[in-house]
TrEMBL record:
Pfam families: HTH_6 (PF01418), SIS (PF01380). It comes from the Bacteria. GO terms for biological process: carbohydrate derivative metabolic process. This is Transcriptional regulator. The lineage of its organism: Bacteria, Pseudomonadati, Pseudomonadota, Gammaproteobacteria, Pasteurellales. It comes from Conservatibacter flavescens. PROSITE patterns: HTH_RPIR, SIS. SUPFAM superfamilies: Homeodomain-like, SIS domain. PANTHER family: GLUCOKINASE, HTH-TYPE TRANSCRIPTIONAL REGULATOR HEXR-RELATED. One of its GO terms (molecular function) is carbohydrate derivative binding. The keyword Transcription regulation applies. Residues 124-264 form the SIS domain.
C-alpha cells in the first residue's frame, strides 16, 4: 500500500465512526482550499466554532500524534497527489466540466487502488468460487452493479442469484447455509433493509462479502470480507456516482480473481457462452 496515496481515503473511512461534529472537522481538514501548512489549530477551531481540544481529539482518532502531525501529513498528501477540491463554476466551459469529471474519476481510482487489500480479494474470490449458492444483494443504483456481476460470472459458468426485491432477498437469505455466500453492495453500508437481509444470511452461517465505502460501516461490521470504495464527495458526482466507477473496476478485479480459481473451467465456459450467443451478433 502506498501510504501517501492511501492517507486521504483511509481518513474518509475512519470518519464514518465519528460524531457529526467530528465529521465536520474532518471535512474541513480534507478541503485543500482551506487547510494548508500555515493553518493553525486556533484557526481551525475558530472557523468551525469548536474547541481546540476537540480538533486535537479528532487528530488522534484519525491516528495522528497530534494536530501538527496531522497538518504535516495531510498537506503533504495534498501536494504529492496534486489533489484539489473540485468545485463547479458558472464560468466553466464544457471542456472545463469534462476535465473535472475525468480528474475526479482518476482521483477516485488512484485512491481506491492505494487502499485495496489484495489478500482480501484473494480470500473472497476463493470463497465465492467454491460456494454452492451465490446471492447478490443491493438497493437503488447499486442494483446495476449486481446485474453486471451476474452477467460477468454467467459467462464463465459461475452462476449467481441477483435479487432486486427485498422480500425475495429475505426469502433467499433464510434458505442459505454455511456452504453459500452473499455478495452485498452498499455504498453507505447503512441501508436498513440490506442490513436486515445480511444479518439473516449470517444467522444461517453464509459467508458475507461486502463492497462498501468504509470498513467501519454497519454492513462491513457483519461481513467476512470487506472491499472498500471510499470515493470523495464532490458537487459534480456526489459520493455514490463516483464510487460506482471504483466499484465497477473492483468488480472486474474480483471477477478475474474468481476466474483464476479454475482457469480451464472459466475459459471453457467463456467459449461456450460466446458461441451460444454468436447468432445474435450476426443479425
Amino acid at each position: 500500500m502506498n501510504k501517501d496515496l492511501s492517507l486521504i481515503p483511509s481518513i474518509r473511512m475512519k470518519r464514518e465512526a465519528m460524531t457529526n461534529t467530528e465529521k465536520r472537522v474532518v471535512d474541513w481538514l480534507l478541503d485543500s482550499t482551506k487547510f494548508d501548512k500555515k493553518t493553525s489549530l486556533s484557526m481551525v477551531a475558530e472557523s468551525l466554532h469548536v474547541s481546540e481540544p476537540l480538533v486535537v481529539k479528532v487528530a488522534k482518532l484519525l491516528g495522528f500524534s497530534g494536530f501538527r502531525d496531522l497538518r504535516k501529513q495531510i498537506t503533504s498528501s495534498f501536494e504529492i497527489n496534486h489533489l484539489n477540491t473540485i468545485e463547479l463554476s458558472s464560468q466553466d466551459s464544457v471542456q472545463d466540466l469534462v476535465d473535472k469529471v475525468f480528474d475526479i474519476s482518476v482521483q477516485t481510482i488512484t485512491e481506491g487502488r492505494a487502499i485495496l487489500k489484495s489478500d482480501v480479494i484473494e480470500k473472497a474470490a476463493k470463497c465465492f468460487f467454491h460456494a454452492k449458492n451465490r446471492d447478490l444483494y443491493a438497493a437503488g443504483g447499486s442494483n446495476t452493479i449486481c446485474d453486471d456481476i451476474a452477467h460477468k460470472f454467467l459467462r464463465i459458468g459461475v452462476r449467481c442469484n441477483s435479487y432486486r426485491d427485498v422480500h425475495l432477498m429475505m426469502m433467499s437469505a433464510s434458505l442459505l447455509t454455511e456452504d453459500d455466500v452473499v455478495l452485498v453492495i452498499s455504498h453507505s453500508g447503512k441501508t436498513t433493509d440490506l442490513l436486515k437481509v445480511v444479518n439473516e444470511a449470517r444467522k444461517n452461517k453464509a459467508k458475507i462479502i461486502c463492497i462498501t465505502h468504509s470498513d467501519v460501516s454497519p454492513i462491513a461490521a457483519v461481513s467476512d470480507f470487506v472491499i472498500c470504495t471510499p470515493a470523495p464527495d464532490t458537487p459534480l458526482l456526489g459520493k455514490n456516482a463516483s464510487a460506482r466507477i471504483l466499484q465497477l473496476i473492483l468488480v472486474d478485479a474480483f471477477f478475474v480473481a474468481v476466474a483464476q480459481q479454475h482457469i480451464d473451467f472459466a475459459q471453457g465456459n467463456l467459449e461456450k457462452t460466446f458461441h451460444a450467443t454468436e447468432y445474435f451478433r450476426q443479425k
